[in-house]
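> forwarded from #structure-qc
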């Protein structure tokens, strides 16, 4: 191929497929791949190891009070994505990028696996409140780590089932009317909600 001047994928894509087929075994197939023509189904080779949501802010934010609504919104999005994927998390991670581009990650292990955005928010907000932020924050993110498939033992007490029914109802409302149709009061007017 090098002798034919075919040193890049772009050069292969720009070549005549019949010319390639005469000079290289499987030349037409190579040309199709270089042009992005591939009828094979995409088969993911592994399951996701985490599910997250993050936002880069238009202006750097100062203090936990300004960050908490964003972290809340992200936690709710992560919970919804977990339920859509049929997964639960045992570890919640908070990611903060400071104004000087320093990256902070903090995580906590939950007592029980969850797909509930409010439980994820409680864990992420505890991590955020433990940080003594001396700089403004340009990016915040929440992610679910160490994912488990749904199932396992039923909860001993009814509160988990009620939370599951509430989340299922919220998911149906969001599916039908969009993610801004129903939210918590602290997220009602945040810029993140307006963008969604």
């Amino acid at each position: 191929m090098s002798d034919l001047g075919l040193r890049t994928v772009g050069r292969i894509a720009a070549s005549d497929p019949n010319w390639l087929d005469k000079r290289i075994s499987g030349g037409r197939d190579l040309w199709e791949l270089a042009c992005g023509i591939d009828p094979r189904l995409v088969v993911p080779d592994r399951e996701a190891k985490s599910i997250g949501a993050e936002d880069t802010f238009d202006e750097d934010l100062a203090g936990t009070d300004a960050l908490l609504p964003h972290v809340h919104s992200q936690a709710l999005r992560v919970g919804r994505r977990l339920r859509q994927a049929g997964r639960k998390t045992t570890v919640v991670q908070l990611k903060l990028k400071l104004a000087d581009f320093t990256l902070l990650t903090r995580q906590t292990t939950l007592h029980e696996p969850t797909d509930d955005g409010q439980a994820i928010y409680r864990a992420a907000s505890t991590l955020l409140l433990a940080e003594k932020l001396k700089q403004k924050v340009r990016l915040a993110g929440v992610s679910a780590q160490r994912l488990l498939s749904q199932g396992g033992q039923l909860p001993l007490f009814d509160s988990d089932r009620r939370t599951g029914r509430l989340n299922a109802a919220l998911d149906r409302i969001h599916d039908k009317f969009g993610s801004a149709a129903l939210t918590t009061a602290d997220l009602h007017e945040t810029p993140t909600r307006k963008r969604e």
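QC bot note: Residues 64-85 form the longest helix (22 residues). The radius of gyration is 23 Å.
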